[in-house]
Design goal:
single chain; 550 residues; alpha+beta; 14 helices; 23% helix
């Protein structure tokens, strides 16, 4: 086996049949030397003034005459955009709104017609691909930049003339609209441009992008992880994985979260980041498999992330929306079932899970309301059970079940993809970075609370013991979590030093995470080999078929 290595925060894959270009000049050099309309589309958070200026400088240096049309100036007035994307079910909710189903075209009163160009007409901004054009580029900035800028009060929402924007609108309105538009125009994009470096973008041509995505869809690969801070966060990600050592903590480690994750293409000097969800949208059958695609369309339905409270504090005790509520109120077609796998725990550590048999729900709701409205603390253990956080234990958490990790744990959360709907019962009267009491969602939480998840039924149904499914020379595969109402299973493969453990995707994607030991080598029947170190996560696309873990 290959020598063990540490956690790699920037996994990269080579472009197939092409290379990553390094400047605006390199991109502009690919344009035909005839009068054209160049449309450059992308999210609102992209540095549009710098994008336009960079293209203009490169074009002028090549002797081109350039005119520009800024799509941001053609968006409808802000009050009309707000009205067109308003949620009828959650008009006044401060934290949530229904996922927007509007198209980006609906944010314009009319789409401009630029007419024939004299030389180079640059149409830039969100929605540029709607304009008649000859060449289409996409200038992307990964979503973590928008999240950080909105959180800092330094950015506006899509269509907003000036900020600050809100995270509520970013998550539930802007991102769904922009993602649908991006996926719709993706087959026509001639160049993908990564503008993380404002004045020195990296880009890749459409044919190279197409071949690279096709290659990824038939081999194991990792997405780029992201570690975020939170008031309850711990320090395992910093101390054990070396991530964000200058941050207050590493509370949440997004190993694989389809709406936000990206895949890095290139090398250390020149790389572009491609949204994972775009890769799935382009080749859903190869990535997901036919049965999963039939059930979920092009939505990748599983996420893997870390909840790090080592040296931190308790998470809130919360639940997630049940299926009908998720569809009718929040607009997601499937719900947020979860599971907790204890990677780090031990004596004195615990998780919160399920209701106590003797807990009165009316008293629970009254205590939660008093904490929210009058800042009165209460003992959550009067109503919610605790279980030891034993290393290697898995807890199943169907939607509607109250739960949370206590201090001192690292939880690998293996869950359904929806990730923005933690309906908090109680958050310990915790304050955010601005000194305000963090929001809880008592109305939503109790509307979704499953009263049947209580007492001994919790231990019997949700705290399961491993069941061996198959084994071989020095390895075994265990089923450690499954429920009829939950659409995924969690399995554990224990591998020795003798023979590799064989597996087969069976036309359904697999996700692998190394929860113990130094790592494994994934070897496919097609001859691909991919190392996976401790705490790393890999997608094995459905199209891979047979593979082995060594």
């Amino acid at each position: 086996m290959a020598e063990a290595r540490g956690y790699e925060p920037n996994p990269r894959y080579p472009p197939v049949g092409g290379r990553v270009a390094r400047s605006w000049d390199a991109a502009v050099a690919t344009l035909p030397d005839v009068p054209i309309v160049l449309a450059v589309d992308g999210p609102a958070v992209a540095h549009w003034d710098e994008v336009v200026a960079g293209i203009a400088r490169a074009a002028i240096a090549r002797g081109r005459e350039i005119e520009t049309l800024d799509m941001r100036g053609h968006l409808a007035a802000w009050d009309r955009i707000v009205a067109r994307t308003a949620s009828p079910t959650l008009p006044e909710d401060p934290d949530f709104t229904t996922l927007a189903d509007a198209s980006i075209a609906e944010l314009f009163d009319d789409i401009p017609d630029p007419g024939p160009p004299d030389d180079l007409l640059l149409v830039a901004g969100p929605g540029a691909g709607l304009v008649r054009h000859d060449v289409l580029w996409y200038a992307d900035l990964p979503k973590r930049y928008a999240d950080a800028a909105i959180g800092a009060g330094a950015a506006a929402n899509l269509g907003q003339r000036s900020g600050p924007g809100t995270a509520r609108r970013l998550y539930y309105v802007d991102w769904p609209i922009v993602d649908r538009h991006r996926d719709a125009i993706a087959p026509r994009i001639d160049r993908w441009i990564d503008v993380q470096r404002k004045n020195e973008p990296r880009s890749i041509d459409a044919e190279t992008l197409r071949r690279t995505i096709a290659d990824l869809a038939r081999r194991p690969f990792r997405t780029r992880p992201t570690f975020n801070t939170a008031p309850w966060g711990g320090h395992w990600g910093q101390s054990q994985l070396g991530q964000r050592r200058d941050a207050p903590n590493t509370a949440i480690g997004y190993e694989l979260i389809a709406p936000e994750s990206g895949v890095l293409i290139g090398d250390g000097d020149a790389q572009v980041e491609i949204p994972f969800s775009l890769i799935v949208a382009r080749l859903p059958r190869e990535i997901l498999g036919e049965p999963v695609m039939a059930a979920f369309g092009t939505s990748f339905p599983i996420r893997f992330d870390y909840l790090d409270t080592v040296g931190g504090g308790n998470l809130s005790v919360h639940c997630h929306p049940r299926a009908e509520y998720m569809r009718a109120i929040f607009g997601w077609p499937y719900t947020q079932h979860e599971s907790y796998y204890v990677m780090v725990g031990g004596d004195g550590r615990h998780v919160y899970l399920g209701l106590r048999d003797d807990g009165d729900l009316a008293d629970f709701e009254a205590a939660a309301q008093a904490a929210d409205e009058h800042h009165r603390p209460f003992e959550i253990e009067r109503f919610v059970q605790t279980f030891p956080a034993a290393h290697g234990q898995l807890f199943m958490i169907p939607a509607g079940t109250p739960h949370g990790s206590a201090e001192g744990n690292v939880i690998l959360e293996v869950s359904a993809t929806p990730y923005l709907y933690s309906l908090r019962f109680y958050d310990w009267l915790r304050r955010d970075g601005d000194g305000n009491q963090r929001p809880v969602h008592v109305g939503h939480a109790f509307a979704n609370l499953d009263p049947e998840r209580r007492g001994d039924r919790v231990r019997g149904d949700l705290v399961q013991s491993p069941r061996t499914l198959r084994d071989g020379d020095g390895w075994r595969e265990e089923l450690i979590g499954a429920l009829p109402e939950v659409f995924f299973e969690v399995r554990r493969i224990v591998i020795g030093d003798d023979e590799p453990a064989p597996d087969e995707t069976g036309d359904r994607f697999h996700i692998l995470n190394v929860v113990d030991g130094d790592g494994v080598m994934i070897e496919t029947d097609a001859g691909d080999r991919h190392p996976l170190a401790y705490a790393e996560t890999a997608v094995v696309p459905a199209a891979v078929g047979g593979y082995r873990l060594r």
